[in-house]
């Protein structure tokens, strides 16, 4: 039995319910962090091996703002480290996106490219990007280039696969409609096929940006002497697990932010898609 | 303008997976005069859509000749506007951009495109919705955009493949009336595919009854009942009785054959 008041509660009550619902999400993380803090402080493990969340936050704060040099040489160097990683991610991702979309659309649209280009790319695809590290170091040395190369390898294939899929699954009646309205070959590609494939291409880009961060950090651990991944690995050698954890948090946050900005661009570009929701039509 | 001649059209689909050929259209001969409103009437699978696609240039006949205004049809083109069964609009474009898409392809400037498209927005009664995306409009409204899009190209022939099949009964009636009004005003040839006897009789002045598999023309009936047509009038019912008897004969023939 539902009464009328159940269906439309008064405004203050609604606000309270929302606030409580917001708090619900925080319960599990808060309990985990509190438990971790308590366990770390209990002394069952040496603080060096399991730093308390407060210690990690302290290290992160000093790394970012450099207030008491608890992170020694890294104190205040976070912006530089984060920028170094972000630029590698951006460089490799941009390159992979440009070439991935170009090759993907070509393969999806043209039989010739499908026959000539696709088999080679599909053979390279199963090779894990990290297994290229030795070659990357031999070819490019220890610097930005091997990292960007690895990021490119990790980000290229998701973009490629989704672009091919996007172009191949374009509704062929849209192509017919375009032909009926007099589109030539180039217009068919730029005005019909490409916009129709965009949702799928964006899905590829979002997977790719995740791979890009993963491979940047991997490359920095092995083949580069700067960036968040380098700090993480270097701190591990010096048994500074508080900095290791601070680096992990930094990478997680930056990866999350990159995805968020990509999502924002996608929402703007694909505004036409948003009108339909599960709840029905908007507007 | 807009005369269509179909000469000995044969269409065979080869079904490679099953290793056999399917004769879909068997020697179709049909003359459609300019400014005719022709309804291709037949059951599902009789090849009426295939015939329409051949006139549109989407498909090639296995043999035979298709001429529009004396010219052989080889590919799709803006002289033949097509209204699809589903609206088939570009989902990323607003109503007005969909209607003006042909002009965009021709490189016409935006201001002029919108100016010319507004005339057709008004014609199909969509003023106020010109900046809506297809996902924000109903099926009937989207189909109106599809019709406006075809009309804007000022084609000599408009080909319609069951465009109202997915609409509810009331919207369908409204759209049928509007289509007749548009046809009377603009004077172009319409070829309209349908499986509904009533729809064919409300719309067409020539009704081409097709037979099922392989598709042949059973009879082309001229139907000049004045408009607006009264669907309860004796003349309407006489024509309906005649067409239904053609269809019934056909199903008896099929039943005996099998």
Automatic annotation (TrEMBL), chain A:
Upper classification of the source organism reads:
Bacteria, Pseudomonadati, Pseudomonadota, Alphaproteobacteria, Hyphomicrobiales
- Source organism: Bradyrhizobium cajani
Q: Which domain of life is it from?
A: Bacteria
What's a single GO CC term here? plasma membrane
Query: What is its biological role?
Result: Probably part of an ABC transporter complex. Probably responsible for the translocation of the substrate across the membrane.
Could you tell me which residue ranges the ABC transmembrane type-1 domain spans?
A: 82-266
Cell location: Cell membrane
GO terms (BP aspect): alkanesulfonate transmembrane transport
Principal place where this protein is found?
membrane
Note the topology in the membrane.
Answer: Multi-pass membrane protein
Keywords tagged on the record: Cell membrane, Membrane, Transmembrane, Transmembrane helix, Transport
Q: Transmembrane residues, as ranges?
A: 89-112, 124-142, 148-167, 188-215, 235-257
InterPro entries hit by this protein: MetI-like (IPR000515), MetI-like_sf (IPR035906)
Protein name as it appears in the record: ABC transporter permease subunit
Q: Which family does it belong to?
A: Belongs to the binding-protein-dependent transport system permease family.
From TrEMBL, chain B:
Which stretches make up the ABC transporter domain?
4-237
Q: Which Pfam families did the record assign?
A: ABC_tran
Query: Can you tell which superkingdom this protein's organism belongs to?
Result: Bacteria
* Keywords on record: ATP-binding, Nucleotide-binding, Transport
One MF term from GO for this chain? ATP hydrolysis activity
- Alphabetized InterPro entries for the sequence: AAA+_ATPase, ABC_transporter-like_ATP-bd, ABC_transporter_ATP-bind, P-loop_NTPase
Q: Does the keyword Ribosomal protein apply?
A: no
SUPFAM superfamilies membership: P-loop containing nucleoside triphosphate hydrolases (SSF52540)
Q: What does this protein do?
A: Involved in beta-(1-->2)glucan export. Transmembrane domains (TMD) form a pore in the inner membrane and the ATP-binding domain (NBD) is responsible for energy generation.
| Family label | Belongs to the ABC transporter superfamily.
Q: What name does this protein carry?
A: ATP-binding cassette domain-containing protein
